[in-house]
Design brief:
The protein is mainly α and about 100 residues long. The protein has six helices and no strands. The chain is rod-shaped and about 85 Å long.
Length: about 100
């Protein structure tokens, strides 16, 4: 009877099969990230760009970010906030308190 024990076993070639399939899986994921998932704006794009984060698209949130970053001072922040609050805030649309 001829077994693997008599022929020396599978040797180092047995490692090539898992490495091959790992390379195939990594290649597929890389290909999908560069093509299909990029068009859908995957979960990794929101972490990199502040515009992709929820809540930062409104003008009031953008003003708050500029104030927090030090781009504008406190007086400028309150002056612009009062104008934006009339247009986009709680009093917009005529349904709020007068």
């Amino acid at each position: 009877m001829n077994t693997l024990a008599h022929t020396g076993g599978p040797g180092p070639w047995v490692l090539l099969f898992p490495l091959f399939w790992a390379a195939v899986a990594i290649g597929i994921v890389t290909l999908l990230r560069r093509t299909v998932w990029r068009g859908r704006k995957g979960p990794w794009t929101a972490a990199r760009t502040p515009q992709g984060a929820p809540g930062l698209s409104s003008p009031i949130a953008l003003l708050g970010r500029r104030f927090a970053a030090g781009e504008i001072d406190e007086d400028e922040y309150w002056r612009r906030l009062s104008v934006l609050d009339e247009q986009f805030g709680r009093t917009a649309g005529g349904g709020g308190p007068v």
